[in-house]
Amino acid sequence: MSSAGAGPLCFLRSKVNAAVYQDVLEHFMLPAADQLYGDADFIFQQDLAPAHSTKATSTWFKDHGIPVLNWPANSPDLNPIENLWGIVKRKMRYARPNNAEELKATIRATWALITPEQCHRLIDSVPRCIAA
Predict the structure, then answer these.
(1) Which stretches make up the Tc1-like transposase DDE domain (predicted)?
(2) Among residues 1, 3, 37, 99, which one has the fewest Cβ atoms lying within 10 Å of its Cβ?
(3) How confident is the model at residue 132 (pLDDT cuts 50, 70, 90)?
């Protein structure tokens, strides 16, 4: 997600290790960044999950010229994507999918309702959250 919109979803069938994460970055994040930012610069935000903090992942970002926000260990979770997932969960509160495919369809439909304005408000709230 960015202040310009939510971008595409990616459903994974395996645990996320560095190789899986880099594959997601390559095939989902890069096209989404191109769509959301065009030629504009951006800083990528991630937490310190093991797949995010490997040397190979750091090298991937450097090789692609993407700056990554320095994220301190044991910091509060201020990533606005967590708030976006909260919005999605609230919108899905009364959904009752019967299987994994129905769940994915419900998530996709709900995700499609996220507006660029909602994303922009979430990004704009970060400085206030940090101050608080």
Answers:
(1) 8-104
(2) 99
(3) confident
